[in-house]
Prior knowledge:
The structure holds two protein chains of two kinds. Helix content of chain A is about 40%, strand content about 25%. Chain A is α/β, with parallel strands linked by helices. Chain A has one domain: P-loop containing nucleotide triphosphate hydrolases (Rossmann fold), CATH 3.40.50. In chain A, helix 5 links the parallel strand 7 and strand 8. Chain A is globular and about 55 Å long. Chain B is mainly alpha-helical. Chain B has one domain: MetI-like fold (Orthogonal Bundle). Chain B is about 85% helix and about 0% strand. Chain B is elongated. At the A-B interface, strand 6 and helix 2 of A face helix 7 and helix 8 of B.
Amino acid sequence: xxxxxxxxxxxxxxxxxxxxxxxxxxxxxxxxxxxxxxxxxxxxxxxxxxxxxxxxxxxxxxxxxxxxxxxxxxxxxxxxxxxxxxxxxxxxxxxxxxxxxxxxxxxxxxxxxxxxxxxxxxxxxxxxxxxxxxxxxxxxxxxxxxxxxxxxxxxxxxxxxxxxxxxxxxxxxxxxxxxxxxxxxxxxxxxxxxxxxxxxxxxxxxxxxxxxxxxxxxxxxxxxxxxxxxxxxxxxxxxxxxxxxxxxxxxxxxxxxxxxxxxxxxxxxxx
Amino acid sequence: xxxxxxxxxxxxxxxxxxxxxxxxxxxxxxxxxxxxxxxxxxxxxxxxxxxxxxxxxxxxxxxxxxxxxxxxxxxxxxxxxxxxxxxxxxxxxxxxxxxxxxxxxxxxxxxxxxxxxxxxxxxxxxxxxxxxxxxxxxxxxxxxxxxxxxxxxxxxxxxxxxxxxxxxxxxxxxxxxxxxxxxxxxxxxxxxxxxxxxxxxxxxxxxxxxxxxxxxxxxxxxxxxxxxxxxxxxxxxxxxxxxxxx
Lengths: 271, 246
């Protein structure tokens, strides 16, 4: 892929929501730089604002104040340069696998042959070429997410954003999907931002683990993961992996306790 | 097993009972004709062509009125749900008109259109329009927001959002509205034909009542019911194929 494509500059991103109980700060002055081609995990306890941060990078939310720049361009809305894989597959139920994946290339104005070639390429990449004519309801959760990944990649985005995409899957499927994702990512090394609350997942996948505090979400640590690629399930028991896990775990635990107690306090206050 | 057998036999048993009561002398046979009298009247109407003409007129009115009401309802629903400005302009007036039963509109329609086919189309369309409009409106609002986000990140421009995502996404709801309004279309048809028509199945019911042709009257009622049932079944078959994912 072209040099330097998909660098993300996150500058003092702040997102506030106003609700019944006043205003809630979901993300607080978050700043981090992500280089082209990096696989970065955003790790934090539930409710810390990591999905909100991802939505701001995707362009579904506009931070106020703060900004996100991708390749130097300030983000003002969603676009085909930033592919998103959501927590739920969000496939179009009236379109089959082929049509779901082909939508992006079609909207980009490619001709029939180019759309076909692209779609077939990514269907094969995620291992679903046999299922081209299947509809989402006929597929398992894991397969649906694979379609979601292919769909986002088919547009040749600068950046791929994934919001806890394997959270709804069972543990075995999740492991296989993680390995699958790495294989797919190795193909063209698109900049990948992966949001998760699962420490093992973050360390297994990423070049860097960016740790987010409990709400309001702030940057608390930026941990490089120097494990060699390509990675397989064997590294899960290696010393370095366990050490990294512990580092993250200790930092996260404090935050998780905070988030848990905050939730108890809120619920006790609203009988 | 026994339950199913009873199910098969219950309608014939009903017919038999009816026949016995009508021919027994317990009731005035002129007022309560036997099934055989009804069949005779229907047969005579069929061979003279009157029955088919009536069915033709009624079906054409339902068809044209329904299509007009449905198309307008879907268009209005899509536009008012998608564009807040359109909604504020159009919806308040429509909400005031919506609760008025289609039957009550009949005299007004006659004054505006006269006693002709457009008047019937209008009446059928009126009832259908409001049901389909609301169903479409709700359908659009209930489209999974994640699908819209997915479309946005795939590069679907706002101008194509309606056709690519919103209309298909709302289709299950729209179809429910379309199905409900088939029934309403027939109610409106009956009101229209009884109030001012010179042909049609409901008209025939009314006419034969005035001429004390009770056999023809009851026969026409069954004909009306039959047409309505066939229409409903045809609609379901189409709807199931159209919204196959639901």
